[in-house]
Amino acid sequence: MLKNVARKIFGSYADRYTKKLLPMVQEINSLEENIKKLSNEELKAKTDEFRKALENGKTEDDILTEAFAVARESSVRTMGMRHYDVQMMGAYALHKGKIAEMKTGEGKTLVATLAMYLNGISGKGAHLVTVNDYLARRDAQWMAPVYLFLGLTVGIIQHMASFRVEWDNEEELTTKIVECDRDEAYAADITYGTNNEFGFDYLRDNMKSPNEPLAQRPLHYAIVDEVDSILIDEARTPLIISGPTESGTDHYYEVNSIVKDLEPHKHYKLDEKNKSAQLIDEGINAIEAAMKIDNLFDIKYVDMLHHFNNSIKAHALYKKDVDYVVKDGEVIIVDEFTGRLQPGRRYADGMHQALEAKEGVKIESENQTLASITFQNYFRMYEKLSGMTGTALTEAHEFLSIYNLEVAVIPTHMKMIRKDNPDVIFRTVTEKLNAIADEIEEMHKEGRPVLVGTSSIEKTEIISSLLNKRKIKHEVLNAKNHEREAEIIKDAGEKGAVTIATNMAGRGTDIKLGEGVKELGGLHILGTDRHESRRIDNQLRGRAGRQGDPGSSRFYVSLEDDLMRIFGSEKISSIMEKLGMKEGESIEHPIISKSIEGAQKKVEGFHFEIRKHLLDYDNVMNQQRNVIYSLRKDIITGEATDAIITETIDNVLNNMVEVYVNATDKPDFDEFEKDIEETFGISFRFSEDRKEMQRDLNQLDKLIEDRVEERRDQFGGYFEEVIRFLYINILDNRWKENLLQMDYLRDSVGLRGYGQKDPLNEYKREAFNLFVEMMNKINYEVVKFLFHVQVQAESDVQAAQQREKLQTTEEHKDIFAEEKKEQKKKPITRDYPKVGRNDPCPCGSGKKYKKCHGQAEDGNDTEETNA
User: Fold this and answer.
1) N or C: where does the chain have the smaller number of CB atoms within 10 Å of the terminal CB?
2) Beta bridge partner(s), residue 527
3) Which residues belong to any copy of the Helicase C-terminal domain (predicted)?
């Protein structure tokens, strides 16, 4: 009540924000007349003028009003589209690093051009992130004339391809898309692409060898389209690049054959709310009998137990045509928020293999994580981040707490006149479905187009079969026939059209009304159930009532729906019982709709906690990732090779001092000296007096420095290249091992809760120890290789390869024997004095000469590592 009173006196936050932006809008409008007088060349020259201003110390805010006016004029001249005042407000919010909430049909694609132009002028790169390849390519080519006309370059990042947009005919203002390298698309002033590709390119860049060019530049500015879908809905699934492991897949079939005979409630408990299953005594006994083992919970069966848990979830909680489809012998995930297929994406941790076993298709090998990152941590790396969507306000708290993004609600250009009816509640699904079919039939007779929104492929097919029985012509849009999406949506607003769709019809699509439809009341939205998130329902509603069009919406709910069954139908159920309702009767009341909204809020809060929990764990990983990727980048660019080597050697030496001196009451100088010789190839003797330790270490430092210079001379001009090669290979191998260890750690710490320990704190503590151990191993291996690796000239390598080739060819055996005879006659030349066979080898390996370089004099091959 107090909130309502305050709103009446002071206006809502959205009203106050809009009011604050009016002077800025008026200033842009005041420049319009003078900007219109500029020739095309003069308008284009404004970009160079802005660039010089930025170079001379001005900020984007200083040039904002004129830059917006120039970009708007470019849009008018190239596409005949002039930005409305509210669109300029939306663009300002995007530039200031906020989320612009703008209703469907308000032209968000055009709004973005103003902020993209302003932030792309500097040449640091402005990214527009979309949810799929089709939208990225469509929007880039559609809006490219605005940028190209003003002298900016445009790139497109797609799955397995990249392009630039350029003029096809500048006079006619037509464009073409030309294939280009990945780094060229990223080097453009403006780059359009998908969230997955931007994230994966970041990971790929951090897996490249020193000679490969990096695709991405430092992350400067991004606008995330459909920001709630990308930063919230998809935030529960990290991006993972993985490689195959050596473990087989037969055990999945074996486990599946046992689990398919188990029964819920008898053998295991289900928790649908948390999407988890737990074996109970009878189930454990059944598995132990089938596997002929004594104790399933023995430590040696930990992997087997994990597979059984996955298989139970696959059978009891993952539903075909809801969570996944089987297509061409593959299990393909269905995105729960958009209803679209996700080819190439796989459930992690053996879950996908469990589903493949359940469906009897070929099981792909298990993969090991090579690199991973969450969307939360990827997008937080941008210097400035913003977003736009029609539905962000319900998640404002999460955007602010996770991404530090405020939501700015932008008013509509024309007043919204869509009528949103209260929900209709039934006791059973059957009653609800019959009522839905009745309403569709009634609307169809009136000639009003109807968009029927469902939450799964399975439900689209159920509604379709009901309409077929009533001989009502309709179209079905789901992940199974998404190829026809554009064609189906194009006709969805025509007179008498009936379209049944999953949530995929709620994103990036505008349904335009056919002739005479406005007079009938516009498009009617019929929701067949409530989604777990209010945003998804609001997106569906948003398909109707665009740009001041008429329209209406209504949701049908039953007490048997998943949302009501799991999250709170008790209150509503008791009301219905008190009313003594008969079969087929329904309740339609705002109080009921509010109760449903309350259930949705519970689910949203529950999912927020899951995402926050995921982020808490990934933040630990992110700190490690930042250290490794930063070190890797420094090594590859070669900007500080000497400093890195010096630091690495210092770390190894300090670690030795800690182990052999500081950590013990009596220093173990013998082991210390042995380790120095094995690691650095240097014979060194410490004083017995501990007070002389610092002097000894200073002497050792000097010897190591001299040894480094020796190695530099031996490597010639290849020293830095060899160092990079060694460091990157060792770093990548150890990092890969660490990721596997972190996966195991993550799986195991959950059980620490039973011992009254906080799993997250345990994870942080053990992850830190693993990381320190990994860095010590990397430093030690790099130093050992640096001081012991042998160098061979390329000509020697080629000669050796040629000899090997000749030796293995029958017809050249005699020639090879003759060559060997000649070689034996030649004197052995050395770059060091003659050494006794039992003396230490001068190479510093610590071996006797006869067992090391002396082998060559005996006619044997020398063991060498080629760099």
Assistant:
1) N
2) 453, 555
3) 432-604
User: Could you write out the DSSP letters of every residue in 611-633?
Assistant: HHHHHHHHHHHHHHHHHHHHHHH
pLDDT tens readout for residues 669-698: 888 889 898 888 888 888 877 678 888 888
Nearest to 785 by CA among 711, 685, 860, 710: 711
Whether 56 has a pLDDT exceeding 80, the answer reads yes
Residues 6+ apart with CB under 8 A from 172: none
pTM: 0.73
CA angle 452, 456, 462 (to 5 degrees): 65
Q: How far apart are the first and last CA of the chain?
A: 75
> How many alpha carbons lie under 13 Å from residue 852 in its C-beta half-sphere?
18
Report strand pairing: 161-169 vs 154-158.
antiparallel
| Cβ atoms of residues 35 and 69 within 8 Å | yes
If 0-12 CB within 10 Å is exposed, 13-18 middle and 19+ buried, where does residue 31 land?
middle
> Can you read off the two tokens belonging to residue 242?
């993985």
Q: What is the mean pLDDT of the chain?
A: 83
pLDDT at position 198 over 80: yes
Tell me if 108 is assigned to a ligand binding site: yes
510 is in an annotated binding site: yes
The first and second tokens of residue 98, run together, are 């906020």
Q: Tell me: the pLDDT tens digits for 495-529?
A: 999 999 887 654 556 788 998 999 999 999 999 98
What is the full DSSP assignment across 580-604?
A: TPPTT--B--HHHHHHHHHHHHHHH
Q: Encode 735-750: b = buried (16+ Cβ within 10 Å), e = exposed.
A: bbebbebbeebbeebe
Please tell me the distance from the alpha carbon of residue 827 to that of residue 572, in angstroms, as a whole number: 100
In this structure, are strands 450-453 and 523-527 parallel, antiparallel, or unpaired? parallel
Report helix, strand or coil for 252: helix
Strands 174-179 and 161-169: antiparallel
594 annotated ligand-binding residue: no
Please provide the DSSP assignment of 738-803 as one string.
HHHHHHHHHHHHGGGGGGT--HHHHHHHHHHHHHHHHHHHHHHHHHHHHHH-----HHHHHHHHHH
CB 474 within 8 A of CB 464: yes
Residue 570's alpha-carbon distances to 215, 528, 578, 760, in angstroms, are 55, 21, 12, 35
| Cα distance between residue 605 and residue 611, in whole Å | 10
Q: Which domains does the chain have, with CATH numbers?
A: 10-236+378-409 (3.40.50.300), 248-365 (3.90.1440.10), 419-588 (3.40.50.300), 622-788 (1.10.3060.10), 827-867 (no CATH)
For residue 329, say whether it is annotated as part of any ligand binding site.
no
Per the structure block, which two tokens stand in for 193? Answer: 């692409």
> 63 with 28: CB under 8 angstroms?
no
Annotated binding residue 106: yes
Distance (Å, whole) CA 204 – CA 350? 23
Residue 533: its pLDDT value, please?
78
User: Which residues are CB-neighbours of 685 under 8 A, at least 6 positions away?
Assistant: 673
pLDDT above 50 (res 828): no
